[in-house]
UniProtKB/TrEMBL annotation, chain A:
PANTHER family for this protein: FORMATE HYDROGENLYASE SUBUNIT 4, FORMATE HYDROGENLYASE SUBUNIT 4-RELATED
Superkingdom per UniProt: Bacteria
Topology in the lipid bilayer: Multi-pass membrane protein
Compartmental location: Membrane
Protein name from the UniProt record: Ech hydrogenase subunit EchB
InterPro entries: ComplexI_Subunit1, NADH_UbQ_OxRdtase_su1/FPO
Keyword line: Membrane, Transmembrane, Transmembrane helix
TM annotation in the entry: 6-24, 61-81, 87-107, 128-150, 264-281
Predominant subcellular localization, coarse grouping: membrane
UniProtKB/TrEMBL annotation, chain B:
Domain NADH-Ubiquinone oxidoreductase (complex I) chain 5 N-terminal intervals: 118-153
Swiss-Prot/TrEMBL keywords: Membrane, Transmembrane, Transmembrane helix
NADH:quinone oxidoreductase/Mrp antiporter transmembrane domain boundaries: 181-463
Bilayer-crossing regions: 55-83, 90-111, 123-144, 164-180, 186-206, 218-236, 242-267, 279-299, 319-341, 348-368, 374-396, 417-438, 450-470, 491-515, 538-559
Cited InterPro entries: CPA3_Na-H_Antiporter_A, ND/Mrp_TM, Proton_antipo_N
Record carries keyword Acetylation: no
Matching Pfam families: Proton_antipo_M (PF00361), Proton_antipo_N (PF00662)
PANTHER family named in the record: NA(+)/H(+) ANTIPORTER SUBUNIT, NA(+)_H(+) ANTIPORTER SUBUNIT A
Major location category of this protein: membrane
Keyword Transmembrane: yes
Membrane topology: Multi-pass membrane protein
Species, as recorded: Pseudodesulfovibrio portus
Name of the featured protein: Oxidoreductase
Subcellular localization, as worded in the UniProt entry: Endomembrane system; Membrane
Length: 282, 632
């Protein structure tokens, strides 16, 4: 019963918090750039407006893929709130990621095709790091399930600091923030062409936006697990992490996929492996 | 009981002879379909009776069956040696001769003949029999219309189908014999029969390339046969028995025996096409598609992983076990990487097969109840999904004349039914809540306990496989014109495709019960408990049925939303300028139509086959030497 309530809270609060964070993100970004920026609720206004627009698609696969992306993202958040298995949550999240790519490939458009290929590169970069982070969780708690985290006395950050850094690395890619935003890269400095999202418009773009909010919550939820002992410190950790993400997003130029693969595999995996060796030894 | 067993082994032999000697296509087709039906029923019947203790076969037609197997063994080696001579392959001749000499010495000098119950059936066997008999039969049935069209393409004067179906059906009998064997000499005999069958089938089209690749397959598998003989002799010298059940019950017994088991694993590696032996399976792609489907899903390579898995209790907690796990994980990683660079659909499937076999072998090496469960789950679900995908590629190839995934772009427009089934097949290979992913999940959770190198290799390989499978599924989607001609499929093509596709989904839903009724009794301590349609272990929980419900209902809703797409406005894609009236072009300079195209990224600079293969082969050889040497 408690699990069910938690799941419902997750499903409802997920997009609300995700939308607010998206709004805050834009305000902070504007502040960095000495602009005023839109109201915090702007993300919701945008999505509401998109939902009201005329439905236009290239073919039916896009509708299917947009829906499955949203459903998979929501399911992974639900599983997270149900204290489920970390690896399973990750694999369910991958359903969404794969369908987003397939939807982009379904349209015969060079922009969305290129975006899809680049998104695959991003998946290739972050997936191994995430799996290794979850293995770290297993080594500390003795289980892949989130439930086991709560029985820990010490915050996990103490035992897996490098894994947290690697996770941050992977999450920047997952959230498609600079310097790793090339799968949704703009074209001609306008927001009309955005890689994998190029062919999505109106209500279907809104679905993807909502799915992205869910993903943001999942990502922050994973970070929150590193300081489960104290709510205040958890909040500090999350705010600090997200602020750092925004800072990196705004100060870095977009890089190529080659740069990303090499950096992430060498640096991200390297940090993970070093941390895992401590844990295996300990 | 023993009638059922003999039926499973001997019926395919009899049917194969009918296919060969009765030169009427009607009789042959009927024989194949009837054999398939009987085998399916027999395997289900065997499953219903459950596991059984080793039983003796006694004599057939007054001749002792052990003696018969011995005679056939040497006859088989003579046949293989003959083909070695015919194709002037010194490797085949050498390996076969060495096998014959060692075997003669073993059988006539060192072996103290005692009665060994020849056949046994534990849960592992039952699963294998099911996979072989059901999936294998469906592939044989699919082959009937396929081979007809195949020969029409080739314009043969005299049909070679009798020979083809002889080996195809014989293969099923040999595989059933292999997995049911309790006498290690019997296992060796059937092991060699599968080698011969695969050689004949790969070289079936008798083109220069087919012959070349079949010879390579034969010498690599003859090497495996040699390793099998050596392993068998070492194991016998330490344990003094040919009885597999007794060997397994005894567990690891001293360095000599463990090394012997190591050689048996090496034999399994060659048969399962593990790096550095992957080239024979890739070469086997020249054979007609039903052969590839059979080799990759229910026979041949599964014989390899079966041998490694069968002897898992004989090397548990030894250095050999770790060695096997590392070799398997390395193959998983190497072939997942090699797959990224491929655009040939069959090659992608081949690399993904080898990678998954590597994962299964890795699980056998990790050798915990959780890992062994993962291995069997992977065998079962990989067989279903992979056979489906091969049959799909075969169907697509006959329709569009290419197996390149770039040529399959937007295939949904032309072949909606085949494309849809292929996409479903690909999704069952890589996404939850389907069985293959369930197996992979178990494998990763099991590997977390074992060794950091294994974990890293599994994590990287798993991401790479997603890349090449997702890319393929995505590129087959596309727009379909309103009122386009519907796709026609022969009944014997449509039926196997449909049945296997349904099985891939239905069996995945049933996985908790498959685990409960089949796998849990096999393992000493069951790693999972089943509750609410979920598999729960100390490591974590996979919510199978709830996930199916949520994602399934979600998918249904999405399909419904998508099916109303004609009501939405259908727009041409954005091209950064004006779309011209011709599809796939935009209005360029001088108002001319400029065509555009997009292709997949194959990352040649990182994952080129030519560059990567020698490195992987060298590393794999080193690992195998390490595995065998360390076992001593």
């Amino acid at each position: 019963m408690d699990t069910l309530i938690l799941v419902i809270i997750g499903l409802v609060a997920g997009p609300i918090l995700g939308g607010l964070i998206a709004g805050l993100d834009r305000r902070v970004t504007a502040w960095f750039q000495s602009r005023q920026g839109p109201p915090i609720m702007q993300a919701f206004y945008d999505v509401a407006k998109l939902l009201g627009k005329e439905k236009m698609v290239v073919n039916q696969w896009q509708i299917l893929c947009a829906w499955v992306y949203l459903i998979a993202a929501a399911t992974s958040v639900a599983l997270f709130f149900a204290q489920g298995d970390l690896l399973l949550i990750f694999f369910v999240q991958a359903v969404g990621a794969v369908f987003l790519v397939m939807g982009a490939m379904a349209a015969k458009s060079p922009y969305s095709q290129v975006g899809a290929q680049r998104e695959l590169m991003q998946i290739l970069a972050y997936e191994p790091v995430l799996i290794l982070v979850f293995v770290g969780f297993y080594l500390v708690t003795g289980s892949f399930s989130i439930e086991a985290v709560w029985s820990q006395e010490m915050p996990l950050l103490a035992k897996m600091p490098l894994l947290y850094l690697a996770l941050g690395y992977a999450l920047t890619i997952k959230l498609r923030k600079s310097p790793f935003d090339f799968s949704t890269s703009h074209h001609g400095h306008q927001e009309l062409v955005k890689g994998v999202l190029t062919e999505y418009s109106g209500p279907y773009l809104a679905l993807i936006e909502i799915a992205h909010w869910y993903e943001t919550i999942l990502v922050l939820g994973l970070c929150a697990l590193f300081w489960h002992t104290n709510v205040a410190w958890m909040a500090v950790l999350l705010v600090a992490t997200y602020m750092l993400e925004i800072l990196v997003d705004n100060t870095m130029a977009r890089m190529t996929w080659r740069w990303m693969l090499k950096r992430v595999w060498v640096l991200g995996m390297g940090m993970s492996v070093v941390n895992l060796i401590w844990l295996y030894a300990g | 009981m023993s009638n059922l067993l003999l039926l499973l082994i001997l019926l395919p032999v009899a049917a194969a002879l009918v296919c060969y000697f009765v030169r009427s296509s009607a009789v042959r087709n009927l024989t194949v379909v009837a054999t398939g039906a009987v085998l399916t029923l027999a395997s289900v019947g065997l499953l219903a009776q459950g596991a059984f203790e080793p039983i003796a076969v006694g004599s057939i037609l007054g001749i002792s069956s052990d003696f018969l197997v011995t005679v056939l063994d040497f006859a088989l080696l003579a046949v293989i040696f003959f083909y070695g001579l015919k194709h002037k392959s010194l490797l085949i001749q050498g390996f076969t001769l060495a096998q014959a000499v060692l075997l003669a010495w073993f059988e006539f000098i060192s072996l103290k003949h005692e009665a060994v119950p020849a056949l046994m059936g534990d849960q592992l066997t039952l699963v294998m029999v099911l996979v072989i008999s059901v999936i294998g039969s469906l592939i044989c049935i699919f082959a009937i219309p396929y081979m007809k069209e195949h020969e029409e393409h080739l314009h043969l004067k005299k049909s070679r189908q009798p020979r083809f179906f002889f080996f195809l059906v014989l293969f099923l009998g040999a595989m059933n014999g292999l997995v049911l064997s309790n006498n290690i000499l019997w296992m060796y005999f059937f092991f060699e029969v599968t080698t011969l069958c695969s050689f004949m089938l790969i070289g079936h089209d008798a083109t220069e390339i087919a012959t070349k690749n079949s010879v390579r397959a034969l010498w690599m598998n003859a090497l495996g046969g040699l390793a099998f003989v050596i392993g068998m002799m070492l194991v016998y010298s330490e344990t003094g028995t040919l009885n597999i059940a007794a060997i397994l019950a005894a567990g690891p017994q001293g360095a000599l025996m463990v090394t012997g088991v190591g050689f048996l694993c090496l034999a399994g590696f060659t048969k399962a096409a593990q790096v550095p032996f992957q080239s024979w399976l890739l070469g086997a792609m020249v054979a007609p598609t039903p052969v590839s489907a059979l080799l990759h899903s229910s026979t041949m390579v599964k014989a390899g992983v079966f041998v490694v898995l069968r002897f898992a209790p004989a090397y548990v907690d030894t250095f050999l076990s770790t060695g096997v796990a590392v070799c398997g994980a390395f193959t998983f990683l190497a072939c997942a990487a090699l797959g990224i660079g491929q655009s040939n659909g069959k090659k992608i499937l081949a690399y993904s097969t080898v990678a998954n076999l590597g994962l299964i072998i890795c699980c056998a090496g990790i050798n915990t109840p959780l890992a062994l469960t993962a291995a069997i789950m992977l065998i079962l679900f990989h067989a279903v999904s992979k056979s489906l995908l091969f049959l799909c590629v075969g169907t697509i190839e006959q329709a569009i004349g290419s197996r390149d995934i770039e040529d399959m772009r937007g295939l949904y427009a032309k072949l909606p039914r085949t494309a849809l089934i292929t996409i479903i097949g690909i999704l069952t290979m890589m996404l939850p809540p389907f069985g293959v992913l369930l197996g992979k999940w178990m494998a990763i959770e099991a590997s977390a306990d074992s060794n950091i190198f294994i974990v890293i290799m599994l994590a990287m390989g798993s991401a790479m496989m997603v890349v090449y499978l997702a890319r393929w599924a995505g590129s087959m989607m596309g727009s379909r014109e309103e009122g386009a001609k519907s796709e026609s499929q022969a009944l014997l093509i449509r039926l196997p495709l449909f049945i296997i596709c349904l099985a891939a989904v239905a069996l995945s839903v049933a996985s908790p019960w498959i685990y409960n009724s089949l796998l849990a009794p096999w393992l000493g301590s069951a790693p999972f408990t089943v509750g609410f349609g979920s598999l729960e272990s100390a490591h974590g929980t996979f919510v199978v049925v709830p996930l199916f419900l949520v994602l399934g209902l979600g998918l249904l809703y999405a399909v419904k939303a998508a099916s109303g797409y004609r009501k939405t406005r259908i727009m041409p894609p954005y091209l950064g300028g004006a779309n011209s009236s011709v599809d796939g072009t935009y209005v360029g300079p001088m108002n001319g139509d400029v065509p555009f195209s997009a292709g997949n990224m194959y990352l040649g600079e990182l994952f080129a086959e030519g560059k990567l293969t020698p490195i992987c082969n060298a590393l794999a050889v080193a690992l195998i030497v390490l595995m065998l040497g360390g076992a001593l």
